[in-house]
Amino acid sequence: MSSRSAEGSARSNAAPSVGGAMFALPTLALAPTLIRFPVSRKRLVASLATTGTKG
To answer: If you write DSSP's letter for every residue of 3-50 in order, what string do you get?
Structure first.
């Protein structure tokens, strides 16, 4: 076995890279907004519609 293949297998057993966290953290940050928007969409559309009308 060459030293190069031994080094490659050592890397695969190392700690996970931060690449997964770079995708997971923004997704977790957007989750509350993505949950709240469909719930409050009806109220948002209604308020925008009444804003443009004259009283």
So the answer is: HHHHHHHHHHTSPPPTHHHHHHHHHHHHHHHHHHHHHHHHHHHHHHHH
SS3 51: helix
* Rounded Cα–Cα distance for residues 20 and 40 (Å): 31
Rg, C-alpha atoms of the chain: 25
Distance CA 55, CA 19 (A): 54
| pTM tops 0.70, yes or no | no
From first to last of its 55 residues, what are the pLDDT tens digits of the chain?
555 555 555 555 666 677 888 888 998 999 999 999 998 999 988 888 888 776 6
